[in-house]
Amino acid sequence: MTLRAVVLCCSLKPSPAPSSSELLGREVLTALADHDVTGEVVRVVDEHVKFGVSTDEGDGDGWPAIRERILAAQILVIATPIWMGQPSSVAKMVLERLDAELSERDEQGRPLIFGKVAAVAVVGNEDGAHHVVAEVLQALNDVGFSVAAAAGTYWVGEAMGSVDYADAGPKPDTTGAATKTVAANTAHLAHLLAAQPYPPS
């Protein structure tokens, strides 16, 4: 079975500006392809998403179209930079919009998100990657996403440095290895849940 993934790039920069978080997100997507997963990358700031905690904030809100992609996929990857030790404001907006899924149920009474698997990719020039991974994965799990073992990959540059991930060169034994693990474990769990969904509560 071929599964589908959506990578939400939570860069503050609109396209076509280069984005290290998008680069790492695309690397996760490439690694997922080795495990029968296809997908796409969506740069959230390009989609005119409104602030809010509903599935549709109306009047040109870009979130409903993104939500359709998430619901049609089995895997969601949040790719975010670190700013002041935190996920980007765009990532936090995405989590706030996903809060609406707590009240959305399938015909058996399960949250629509049950059965979907989440992972996180983080880049930044300061320490804080573990905090960002933990914060984002906890929020995603709260709304119903499952989380595989070692579901976060990251790259963090030198403190107070100015080198971006895109300019740092390949890191096959560190970030690259973590990305392969994220992809393998996330795809494995997603395949299991696709074949045998969670039971109704």
UniProtKB/TrEMBL annotation:
GO molecular function annotation: oxidoreductase activity
InterPro entries (alphabetical): Flavoprotein-like_sf (IPR029039), FMN_Rdtase-like_dom (IPR005025)
SUPFAM superfamilies linked to this entry: Flavoproteins
Pfam families found in the cross-reference section: FMN_red
Ranges of residues in domain NADPH-dependent FMN reductase-like: 4-147
Highest taxon above the source species: Bacteria
Name this polypeptide is given: Flavodoxin
Species: Actinoplanes nipponensis
